[in-house]
Design brief:
five-stranded antiparallel beta sheet, globular, mainly beta, single chain
């Protein structure tokens, strides 16, 4: 699996191993690497975030929609979340995609 992930990284392909995420979700996004505040994140990174209303979410970033200022996230409970970036109060990267390389 680690060698397969290295080949994907070399080809700029990100593997999100989840049956809920479809090709339509990936095509919906237009940015795969971006800044949230001063934190640089990309598709495939596992994050933990807190919204302004104290809701907490953990999941993997699918991507972002620049025009609508949205972050698409798949949670560990297999839900696709579309979150407005300005509603995010705190964000922390749990693990970076491809951190072994």
């Amino acid at each position: 699996m680690v060698i397969k992930e290295k080949v994907y990284l070399k080809n700029n392909t990100i593997l999100i191993d989840n049956k809920v995420v479809t090709n339509d979700h990936i095509k919906e996004t237009d940015i795969s690497e971006f800044l949230i505040g001063e934190l640089k994140v990309r598709s495939g990174d596992e994050i933990s975030l807190v919204l302004n209303n104290e809701e907490k979410f953990n999941g993997i970033i699918i991507g972002a929609k620049k025009r609508e200022n949205l972050l698409l996230l798949v949670t560990h409970s297999n839900e696709i979340m579309r979150l407005k970036v300005n509603k995010i109060r705190k964000i922390r990267v749990v693990s970076k995609y491809g951190k072994f390389f």
